[in-house]
Design brief:
Strand order of the largest sheet: 6-7-13-11-12
Radius of gyration: 20 Å
Number of helices: 8
Order of helices and strands: HEEHEEEEEHEHEEEEHEEHEHEEEHE
CATH architecture of the largest domain: 2-Layer Sandwich
Structural class: alpha+beta
Strand content: 25-35%
Bound molecules: flavin-adenine dinucleotide
Low-confidence stretches: none
Number of strands: 19
Mean pLDDT: 97
Shape: globular
CATH topology of the largest domain: Uridine Diphospho-n-acetylenolpyruvylglucosamine Reductase, domain 3
Helix content: 25-40%
Length: about 300
């Protein structure tokens, strides 16, 4: 039986009691708006906070998981028996240095992209509509409309499993389609330097507006989701395969294959994490049986 009480007290001393919460519904921290109770959630403000918190939870044999803005996760209905380390608004400094942008892990892509536009820097437009943090985006090599983090990250400072701060250059981040070394090695992104090019402010803003209207037209942005649930299988589009299987609008409980974009699963209001996971499995099975294509899940499951 884990004793959370002493851990909570230590974490409060380290981070300030306002940055530590107990028994928090993860539905409040996931864009899907599902998930049970996390025993503890913390909101570190510095690298030292992260290092000392992890040291504390490890010493107490408590599992931990890092999240950013929660826009690509499904947390179990049973919650998370451990510490969620949320790197978001307490760690969101953004600084421009000529054509480079220094961003703490919790800075939102939308904020960075909009500030880049104001600074007449181009290259970040693709990311303006992705509702994640830059830390989560590096971990996932997030991308859209022909752009991806791989194209703009110069280097990232990360925490390795021994608590060392390491600097990984773009070539060392092992970026692939929706993957990077961060996930493979369980590193934590602390901050990122993005390299952009000088551009024309009006063209940058026009392009961002164009992409935003494409998203509004094609994606169910008015419903809770985690964006595309599946990775794009080689030679196919997940959404098209799902549609061709007749699954548009198909529901399990409150989870539904969006009728606007079949690559999205949406929460129609009453979805549980189980509904979503069951719908993911059903979709994978149906597409495999009909087309022999394996749909690999892009969203990350926590606490299952
Ligand atoms: C409406 C909508 C549209 C979307 N469109 C796109 C899109 O066009 N392209 C795209 O790629 N994605 C898209 N997504 C998915 C999502 O926004 C991205 O994957 C985003 O990069 C996730 O960032 P996050 O901060 O929310 O990460 P989270 O969801 O909090 O976490 C995702 C994963 O990253 C890890 N992680 C988070 N922060 C860190 C960190 N600092 N260090 C190490 N690991 C970390 C977590 O452990 C987890 O495994 C969309 C989602 C929604 C809801």
């Amino acid at each position: 039986m884990i004793n959370y009480h002493t851990t909570v007290e230590t974490l409060k001393k380290l981070l300030g009691s306002e940055n530590v919460a107990e028994k928090v519904s993860m539905s409040l921290h996931s864009s899907f708006k599902v998930g049970g109770i996390a025993e503890i959630i913390i909101f570190p403000s510095t690298t030292e906070d992260i290092v000392s918190s992890i040291d504390t939870v490890k010493r107490n044999n408590i599992p931990f998981t890092v999240i950013g803005n929660g826009s690509n996760i499904v947390v179990s209905d049973d919650g998370y028996k451990g510490v969620i380390i949320k790197l978001c608004k307490n760690l969101n400094k953004i600084e421009f240095r000529n054509n480079e942008v220094f961003c703490q892990a919790g800075a939102l892509l939308s904020t960075i992209a909009n500030k880049a536009a104001q600074n007449t820097l181009t290259g970040m437009e693709f990311a303006a509509g992705i509702p994640g943090t830059v830390g989560g985006a590096v971990a996932m090599n997030a991308g859209a409309y022909g752009g991806e983090m791989k194209n703009i990250v110069k280097y990232a400072r990360c925490l390795d499993n021994e608590g060392n701060v390491i600097t990984l250059l773009n070539s060392e981040l092992q970026f692939g389609y929706r993957k990077s070394i961060i996930q493979k090695e369980n590193y934590i992104v602390l901050d990122v330097v993005i390299s952009l090019l000088s551009g024309d402010k009006a063209s940058i803003i026009n392009y961002m507006d164009e992409l935003a209207s494409k998203r509004r037209e094609k994606q169910p942005l008015n419903m809770p989701s985690a964006g595309s649930v599946f990775k794009r299988p080689e030679g196919h589009y997940a959404g098209k395969l799902i549609q061709d299987c007749g699954l548009r609008g198909y529901s399990i409980g409150g989870a539904q294959i969006s009728d606007k974009h079949c690559g999205f699963i949406v929460n129609t209001g009453t979805a549980t994490a189980n509904d979503i996971v069951n719908l993911i499995k059903h979709t994978q099975k149906t597409v495999y049986e009909k087309y022999g294509v394996i749909l690999e899940q892009e969203v990350k499951l926590i606490g299952f």
